[in-house]
Amino acid sequence: MDRKAWIAIILCAVALFYWEWQNAKTRQAALAAQQAAALASPSPSATATPSIETPSAAQPAAAPTPATAAETRKLRSSVAEYTFTNVDGGIATVELLQHRAENGTNVIINNTSNIPIGAVAEEPANWPQTSYAFAAGDDSKIVLESTAPSGVKITKTFTLSPAAKDLKDPYQVRFDLTFSNPTGSKQDVRQFYISTGAAAPIHRLDQPRYTNFDYQAGSKTSYINVLGPFEAGRIPLIGIQTSAAKTEVRESPGDVLWAGTKNQYFATILNILDDNRGVGIWAARYDIPLISPDAQAHHGINGALGMPGFSLAPGETKTESFSFYSGPKEYSRLKKLGHEQDEVMEFGLFKIVSEFLLNALNWLHSVFKNYATSIIVLTLIIKTGLWTIQNKSMQSMKKMSLLAPRMTELKEKYKDDPTKMNQEMMKLYKEYGINPFAGCLPIFIQMPIFFGFYTMLAVAVELRNSSFLWVKDLSQPDTVAHVLGFPINLLPIVMALTMVWQMHITPKTGDAVQQRIFLFMPIIFLVFSYNYASALALYWTVQNIFSIVQLYLTRNQPMPELKKVSAAPAQPVLSGKRKR
After folding, report:
1. Per DSSP, what are the bridge partners of residue 155?
2. Could you give the CA distance from residue 268 to residue 501 in angstroms, rounded to a whole number?
3. Are 163 and 153 in contact (CB under 8 A)?
4. Which CB contacts under 8 angstroms, 24+ apart, belong to 381-385?
5. How is the beta sheet containing 192-199 ordered, strand by strand?
6. 3-class SS at 174?
7. Are 264 and 206 in contact (CB under 8 A)?
8. How far is CA 402 from CA 231, 396, 422, 438, 507, in A?
C-alpha cells in the first residue's frame, strides 16, 4: 500500500473512534435526563373508570363498576410465569423461565408498560383502567369478570398450555373474551381494541430498529418501528423537516389475522383463533429510562388489535377466541403457529438465505451442542462448496496478471481516448478467453450469504448467552475493555486484520484505483460489524482464515499458460427461400 492509502485508512479509523466516543457521551446525557424524568413522574393510578361498552340510545346507563384495590394473581407453566391484574383485566407481566437478562434475572415481557396484555378499550389512546373481579379458576386458568355501564357482562378467560388443548406451543395462552347481555333490551358493543402488550429493549445494546409493532392483514405483513412514524421526517444531511412526528398510528386495514409487539429477541403476538377478523390496529410509543449508560434505545411501543362491533339481543352471549404467544422469537416455534406468525422475524430481502442458514445452524447445534462450533462448521461447509469457484477465480486472476504488461501498453497508447482503451482491453480479454470479473465472482456470491447471516444473527435468540473463548454472548459485541468510553471489540478487529492479510497475498488485478477501493473493504466491514453480534465477526473471520489457507495451497501451483482461444466458426448464411 502507498502512503496515501495508509493515511486514508488511519483517518477512517480515527473517524470511527470519534463517532463511537460522541455516541457514548450522548447516551450518558440521555440517561441522566430520562432517569430524572422517571423520578419526577407520578406512578399510574389503579382506580377504575367506566368500561368501553356504551349503552344503546334506548337504554339508560347503569352505574359504573365501583373501584377496587389493585390485585394480582399468578399462574406458572413449564416455560413462563404469568402475573394477572384485575386493573383492566389482563396479563401484567410474563416472566420467561428459560431466558436470562443481563443482570442474571429472568427476562420479563411487558414490564415497562401500564397496559396489561388482553386489556380491552374502545379508545386505545385512553385505556380505562376498569376494575375486574377474579372469578373461579384453577392452576391453569384465570377468569376475570366486569360489568359495563350498559349492563353488558364481560368475562375474560385465560387458559395456559397444555390445558388449552388446541394450542401448539407452551408459550401460548388461550384468551376467550365473552360478552353477555343479561338486560331486557338489545345492547350494542362498539368496535373495541385488545391490547397486544408492549415491547421495549431488554439488552443494553439493543437497536431501536428491532422494537416494532407488527400485524398481518390478508397476506401482507406490516411493520411499525418505534422510531419511524413517531419521529419527524427530515431530509438527510440537510435536516429540513418534511413531516411531523405522530403520537400514535391508527389504521383500518381490515382482515387482520394477528398483531403483536416485539423487541430484538422476544415477541408477544395476539392471534385470532376463530373465523372472525380484526378491522384495525393501533400503536403508540412511550419513553422508558435507558437500561445502562451505553444503551442505544429509550423507547417502548404499545399496540392493540381492533375488533368489529356487534349487537347482543337480550340474553345473548358472544365469545371471541384468541391466543397470545409471549416468548422468544424462535423461527421453528413461530413457523408452527400458523397465519405466518414467523414473519415477525423480519428477515427481509434475504429471507430465503436467512431461513436456510438458521435452520442449518440449529441442526448443527443439535450435533455439536455449541453455537460457536456450529458457526465455524457451517462456515467451512459454505467455503468448501465455493472451493471450485474460488480456484477458477484464482486461475483467472493469474492469467490477468500475465496480461499486465500488455494492459500497461494499451493504457499508455490510448491514455487520451478512454473509450478506445476500454474497447481494446475487452478485445484482449476475449482473445485470451479471460473474464475480467471472475476475480469478483466469489465476493458477489458471498455477499448474499454475509447479509443473510447479518439479518439472521440480529434476531437469532438461540445465540443469546452462548459463549466462545473470551466472548460471553455471541448475540452481542465481544467488548473486552473500554478506552475513554470507546468499546474495544476484539473479533471485528481480528476480522479486519485477516481481510488485510488475505488481500495482501491475493494476486493483484485491475488498475491502481480499483486496488485502492478494495483497500477500504476491511474498514467498511469493520464499521459494519463493530457493534453488532460477535457471531457475525466470528463467521467472517473464519471464512477469511479458510480463504487464506486456500490461497496458500493454490499459490504454488504452476502459472497457467496464456493461450489465445480459437475464434468461433462463422455461422453459414442460408440463401434462397425459407421453408414455410
Report:
1. 145, 178
2. 45
3. no
4. 382/449, 382/543, 383/543, 383/546, 383/547, 383/550
5. 120-121, 192-199, 299-307, 280-287, 249-251
6. strand
7. yes
8. 56, 10, 18, 15, 11
| HEC per residue, 396-452 | HHHHHHHCHHHHHHHHHHCCCCHHHHHHHHHHHHHHCCCCCCHHHHHHHHHHHHHHH
Q: Helix (H, G, I), strand (E, B), or coil: what is residue 82?
A: strand
List all residues 6 or more positions away from 378 whose beta carbon is below 8 Å from its beta carbon. 357, 360, 361, 364, 539
Asked whether 389 and 431 are in contact (CB, 8 A), the reply is: no
Instruction: Give the bridge partners for 189, in sequence order.
Output: 310
| Cα-only R_g, the chain | 31
Ordered DSSP codes for 281-320: EEEEEEE---SSTT----EEEEEEEEE--EEE-TT-EEEE
Contact 314, 185 (CB under 8 A): yes
What is the separation of C-alpha 554 from the centre of its chain, rounded to a whole number of angstroms?
40
Q: What is the pLDDT of residues 527-570, one digit of tens each?
A: 778 888 888 889 889 988 988 887 787 766 666 666 666 554 44
The full length of the chain comes to 580
Name the grid cell of 354: 436467512
Longest distance between any two alpha carbons in the chain, whole Å: 101
Check: CB of residue 347 under 8 Å from CB of residue 456. Answer: yes
Residues 354-389: tens digit of each pLDDT: 999 999 999 999 999 999 999 999 988 888 877 777
